[in-house]
UniProtKB/TrEMBL annotation:
Homotrimer. It comes from Polaribacter aestuariivivens. Transmembrane segments: none annotated. Residues 5-160 form the Aspartate/ornithine carbamoyltransferase carbamoyl-P binding domain. This is N-succinylornithine carbamoyltransferase. PANTHER family: ORNITHINE CARBAMOYLTRANSFERASE, MITOCHONDRIAL, ORNITHINE TRANSCARBAMYLASE, MITOCHONDRIAL. The gene is argF'. It catalyses: N(2)-succinyl-L-ornithine + carbamoyl phosphate = N(2)-succinyl-L-citrulline + phosphate + H(+). Carbamoyl phosphate binds at residues 47-50, 75, 110, 147-150, 269-270, 297. Its EC number is 2.1.3.11. The keyword Endoplasmic reticulum does not apply. NCBIfam families: PRK04523.1 (NF003384).
Length: 312
């Protein structure tokens, strides 16, 4: 595999899940594969799980990870083509990506959306510019519109925890005080569309995700109706896509509670705001899979890096 930038880079999700579970059972089995290879992790935005689990994955493969907080620590990067660089940016992506490629065998990038400029966000300017101007493979650690390492993790976690051949999975919007990206929701939708699950989305009116991503996945505006007979409930906030980047609703009537989820397993990518997105009782209860999900971030990243290393 050359790059991992999107859930569509997964050719067969069932075989990927199987391989990730093998890696989880024996994480150091491929320790020689990444020997003398360097993974550069470039963060334009904050992270706890992605930053640590991707480094852990690299270490399990014998790679040397190096990390940079690009915003603040690096020179301001210019992405425009032909720009007269007499403003705040000091280095063009053409040089920056080419230079990082001299030091790293694989480059992983995190760059969130503006949530104010839909066209710019959907152009995936940062991620695509690295893919264009770097001479080494690129891994998406959450871009403007997708978080495929998280989506793969979530697929692994559902496969590990299901007791049914075709479980019912619900992606539910949940409240938040801030405008959040659509990336996690988008990649979860795309991962579930590749799996043999009965998948529906629940969100208030005005919060439908991009219809080019949701396609024919059923969307409920009644959370109670959507949750009926659910085996997995995955909560996530996202800002409005239709009224781009706006927060239209902050009251807590869509917060996840024990009464709402019943016997379903609860999932969230984390970080999560307790008693806003989800009640303490759910996160502290036995049906919560959030820590197991966070653990699986390592094995999803390790599988992706392994596939890239095998093709170097
Ligand atoms: N879920 C996730 O990507 O977590 P971080 O933002 O902490 O990396």
């Amino acid at each position: 595999m050359k790059n991992y930038t999107h859930i569509n880079d997964i050719d067969n999700i069932n075989s990927w899940i199987e391989e990730a579970r093998e890696i989880k059972a024996n994480p150091l089995a491929n320790f020689e594969l990444g020997k003398n290879k360097t993974l550069g992790l470039l963060f334009f935005n904050s992270s706890l799980r992605t930053r640590l689990s991707t480094q852990k994955a690299a270490l399990n493969l014998g790679m040397n990870p190096i990390v940079m907080n690009v915003s603040g620590d690096a020179w301001g990067i210019e992405f425009g083509d032909g720009t007269v660089m007499n403003g705040n940016t000091a280095e063009h992506i053409k040089e920056a990506a080419a230079v990082v490629s001299q030091y790293c065998d694989v480059i992983a990038v995190r760059a969130f959306p503006t949530l104010t400029d839909k066209v710019k966000d959907e152009s995936e300017q940062v991620l695509n510019s690295f893919a264009k101007f770097a001479s080494v493979p690129i891994v998406n650690m959450e871009s403007a519109t997708s978080h495929p390492l998280q989506g793969l993790t979530d697929a692994i976690t559902i496969a590990e925890n299901t007791t049914k051949k075709k479980p019912k999975v619900v992606l539910s919007w949940a409240p938040h005080i801030k405008a959040l990206p659509h990336a996690v929701g988008n990649s979860f939708v795309q991962a579930m569309q590749k799996m043999d699950v009965d998948f529906v989305i629940a969100n208030p009116e005005g919060y439908n995700l991009n219809s080019q991503i949701t396609k024919d996945t059923p969307i409920y505006h009644n959370q109670k109706e959507a949750f009926k007979n659910a085996d997995f409930i995955y909560a996530k906030n996202w800002s409005s896509y239709e009224d781009y980047g706006k927060v239209l609703k902050t009251d807590l009537d869509w917060m996840i509670t024990n009464k709402k989820i019943g016997n379903a397993k609860f999932m969230h990518c984390l970080p999560v705001r307790r008693n806003v997105v989800v009640a303490d009782e759910v996160l502290d209860g036995e049906n919560s899979l959030v820590i197991e999900q966070a653990n699986n971030r390592t094995y999803a990243a390790q599988l992706v890096l392994k596939k890239i290393l095998e093709d170097l």
